[in-house]
Amino acid sequence: MQKQPWSIGISLLLAFALSSLSAAFPVTVVDDRGHSIAIGAIPERIVAVGALYAEIALDLGAGDRLVAVAESPDNPTGTVHLPSVGPTYAPSVELIVAFEPDLVLGATDWGGERPALEAAGIVVLTTPLLTSVASIFDAIETIGHALGAADQSTRLIGRIATEIVEEETAILGRAAVRAAFLYASSTDDPPYTAGAGAIEHELIFRAGGTNVFADVQGFPQVSFEEVIARNPDVIFTAPTQIENILANPLLQTVSAVVEGQVFGVRASVVASTRVAEALRAMIEALHGTGP
C-alpha cells in the first residue's frame, strides 16, 4: 500500500527527532549509589520498576517507549495497558530480561534485582530516595537526561515549581497551624512521624504549618504519649490509615482527633511529579479553604 505524502512527512520528522536525540548520546548520569551510569544510545525499550519512574517517563513524553512496568496500586493510568514484570517490591528478573530492555528504571539491590540485571548486561538507573522537593527535581532531571528528554525535564520542573510558588503565595500572611504527619499501620502500634529531612516535613512548612515533630530526623517511631504531649491541631496520614488515628482510644484527647482534623494524603502523590497537588490538599486542610 502506497504511503500518503503526509504520512511520509511524519515519518521523516520522527526519524529526524530521534536522530537529533541520538546525537546527544552517549550520556552519563549518577544513580542512587553515586555510581556513574553510561547510556550509549537513546533508550527505546524501557521497563519501569516503581510508579514514580513510570510517572516521570509519561510526563516526559516517553510513555510510548515503556514496554512493561512492575505492579503497583500507584501506577499512573497511562500504564494500565502494559504487561507486568511482577510486584514493585519483588519484580521478576527473568520477566524483565525477556522484554529485552535497553534501560530499566528503579530496580534496586534490596531483592538482588539490580546486580542480576547488570550481570545480564542491562543498564539500570535508580535515583536517590526523595526527601525534598529539590530531590524530585533532581530525579526528573536525571531521568530526563537518561531518556534523551532534557528539554522536557526542564519544562516539567518549571511547571511544578510554578505551581508550588503559586500555592505558597496565595497563603502568605496566614497564621501557621500546628501539624504532624503520622503513619499509623494499626491502632495498637505507635505511629511513625515525618521529621526534618522528610519531604512531608517540608510540605507542612510550605503549606503554612508548623511541624510539631520538627526536632526529630527522618521517620522515627514515636510514642502515643509523645503525640498527646505535642498535641497537633491537624494530622496528616495515609488515606487508608485515617481511622487508625481517629479510632485510637489513646489519642482521643489530641486536638486534631477531637476536632476531626485528620486528613489523608497519599505518599505516592507527595513524592512525585504531582507534589503540588499534595501541597494544595494540605493547604486546604490547614487553613480550611483553598488558597
Description:
The protein is built from 12 helices and 12 strands. It is 41% helix and 15% strand. A 5-stranded parallel beta sheet has the order 5-4-3-6-7. The N terminus is likely disordered. The termini are far apart. The protein folds into 2 domains: 135 residues, Rossmann fold; 113 residues, Rossmann fold, CATH 3.40.50. It is α/β, with parallel strands linked by helices and 291 residues long. The longest helix has 21 residues. The radius of gyration is 22 Å and the shape is globular.
Describe the protein's topology:
Blueprint: H1 5-23, E1 27-30, E2 36-39, E3 46-48, H2 51-59, E4 66-71, E5 84-87, H3 93-98, E6 103-105, H4 113-119, E7 124-125, H5 133-147, H6 150-170, E8 177-183, E9 192-193, H7 199-206, E10 209-211, H8 224-230, E11 234-237, H9 242-246, H10 255-258, E12 262-264, H11 267-270, H12 275-287
Parallel strand pairs: 3-4, 3-6, 4-5, 6-7, 8-10, 8-11, 11-12
Antiparallel strand pairs: 1-2, 8-9
Helix pairs in contact: 5-6, 6-12
How do you describe this structure in short?
This protein has helices at 5-23, 51-59, 93-98, 113-119, 133-147, 150-170, 199-206, 224-230, 242-246, 255-258, 267-270, 275-287; strands spanning 27-30, 36-39, 46-48, 66-71, 84-87, 103-105, 124-125, 177-183, 192-193, 209-211, 234-237, 262-264. By secondary structure, it is an alpha/beta fold.
